[in-house]
Amino acid sequence: MRPARFEEQFKKLTEIGSVARGKSKHRPRNDPALYGGAYPFIQTGDVKHSNFYLAAYSQTYNEKGLAQSKLWQPGTLCITIAANIADTAILKIPACFPDSIIGFTAKPEVSDVRFVKYCLDSYKGQMQAISQGTTQDNMSLEKLLSIRFRVPSYDTQKKIAAILSAYDDLIENNRRRIALLEKMAKEIYREWFVRMRFPGHEQAKFEKGVPVGWVELASSEVFDVLSGGTPKTDVSAYWDGQIPFFTPKDAGDNFYALDTEKHITANGLKSCNSRLYPKETIFITARGTVGKLALANREMAMNQSCYALAPKMAGPVFFHFMTIKGAINYLKGVSKSGIFDNIIVDTFKTVPILMPCEEQIVSFNKVVGPVFQQILGLMETNALLAKKRDVFLPRLISGKLPVEDLDIRFPPSMAEETAHEA
């Protein structure tokens, strides 16, 4: 039997802070009159795609939108209860959000909002389980407030949050570095192939604004456009293997896809229309979210909602990746011919690409190759940091690993060794 002191550590969110649903009373919610102002409007997808703190958003409210909503302050913990269940992020900016997001504000000297976020992350599976059973999974505020979470003393919360947030702070710093490096690669591409200020451009001859020797080709002439397929989902022998299975869900915001949400077996690969695509294959999403790109960091299979683009020119793919990335807006425009946004094979026959001389392509690849390698290295470091953090998370939150057994001064790179010794 557990001691009373241990049981007393289990509390509802309302005992350690204030909780309320977001506000978006206007109907219809997509009324254009509400949007386009100065007030960030956070949605469930923004919470899902944030790391720890939330400062990025894709929509804003104007004064009319704000009037039927509420401006939450930095430090508010956002908890999704519809669409994406139990995703969390801490606001870094003042923002509005709808009633599909719960806002939690910590009581001073009672709860540390960072600890509460980690606590909810460790209970995510339980919260998702109680949200199932309807046409669309959702978690009511009543259900959320019925859950008791293990909440130790305020000092212990701060110590646990300090250990875990050391990883997330490093991850966030690396994300900023990745964003700068990706911006650098885009700027180099624009400088060389859009502004035409490539090395030696002063001596180059131009005709109608295009260097002599450059040619305009259809994308289908530059790439082999390859399809994918999905093994039967009701055959267990096809799934949970070692082969990454790329789908639109795996197309993130960065250049590379390190791994995938789902994996298939060798028999699963044989049973479907996908081949095993090599490292640095360019994947492009063709349905739903159209035109998201990712470079495969390892061999991967692919489903039918994407295409694999294999450059017909041998060598590094950096130029070709940046070229098709530059054509995305055009691709998105021509993909909207049907009821659903989509790209078909023939779409690539209509997307023009200005191809420079091979010498310039080779030179560009040499210049940006190290930039791509730094991006990949930082993404791999972040994956390792997240893995190490996730080793600590459930043990610290559950109390199985007392925080007193850890030296919180250790560098995060030593965390795994320290946990093993503990």
Automatic annotation (TrEMBL):
GO biological process: DNA restriction-modification system
Residue ranges constituting the Type I restriction modification DNA specificity domain according to the UniProt record: 9-182, 211-360
Molecular functions (GO terms): DNA binding; endonuclease activity
InterPro entries: Restrct_endonuc_typeI_TRD, Restrct_endonuc_typeI_TRD_sf, Type-I_RS_S_subunit
Entry keywords, A to Z: DNA-binding, Endonuclease, Hydrolase, Nuclease, Restriction system
Family, as annotated: Belongs to the type-I restriction system S methylase family.
Protein name: Restriction endonuclease
Source organism (scientific name): Acidihalobacter aeolianus
